[in-house]
Design a protein that fits this description.
By secondary structure, the protein is mainly β. Among the domains are: 32 residues, no CATH class; 78 residues, Tumor Necrosis Factor Receptor, subunit A, domain 2. 6% of the residues lie in helices and 30% in strands. It has a 4-stranded antiparallel β-sheet with strand order 4-3-6-5, covered by helices on one side. It comes from Chondrus crispus (Carrageen Irish moss). GO terms for molecular function: serine-type endopeptidase activity.
Length: 179
């Protein structure tokens, strides 16, 4: 048993206080993904997850920190994150790539561009997707597709507008056919 003087963020919930038992300090390091260096060598894992980098504190204490939102990393033992291109943010799902940061835009030719009519891109996604049958997106840069109005239908994916159902016929419940 012993005590550790950590000195940073003292007396805040979730952080060691100025004096704490070594076992509590090591437990805190383990729970935060930190790596504790001793005179005998490394205790723990030095491989950070994607979207993190290996941060060196003082006295040889290292731990993984998340990259800022506009930076990414493949993880491992990298010591700094790389910048995403302008208009991109780190992909929250994998941390090792960047996505377009604006809804209604998709990654086209390595750049964030507005999705064309008939396609959409929700916030946080960098891919323009075709509107499903029965829906449409008439404007470029759509964040979502709209359901066709009651007497209109869109038989195929990627519709920029809906077709009117001829007199005497009805539109199916999903808005995909005029029968």
């Amino acid at each position: 048993m012993g005590v550790v003087s950590f000195g940073v963020k003292c007396a805040r919930p979730g952080f060691p206080t100025v004096y704490t038992r070594v076992s509590a300090f090591r437990r805190w390091l383990k729970n935060t993904g930190a790596v504790f260096f001793t005179s005998a060598g490394v205790e723990g894992n030095t491989n950070c997850q994607a979207g993190q980098f290996l941060f060196t504190f003082r006295e040889g204490i290292k731990f993984c920190k998340n990259c800022p939102p506009n930076q990414f990393s493949a993880g491992g033992s990298v010591t700094k994150c790389e910048n995403c291109p302008a208009g991109f943010l780190r992909n929250r799902a994998d941390g090792r790539t960047c996505n377009c940061s604006t809804a209604g835009k998709g990654q086209i030719g390595g750049m964030c561009k507005r999705c064309p009519p008939g396609q959409f891109s929700p916030a946080g996604d960098s891919t323009c997707k075709q509107c499903p049958p029965g829906t449409f997106a008439s404007s470029p840069g759509s964040k979502e597709c709209k359901q066709c109005p009651k007497t209109f239908f869109a038989p195929t994916a990627g519709s920029a507008d809906c077709k009117i159902c001829t007199s005497g016929k009805t539109v199916t419940a999903k808005g995909t056919k005029c029968v």
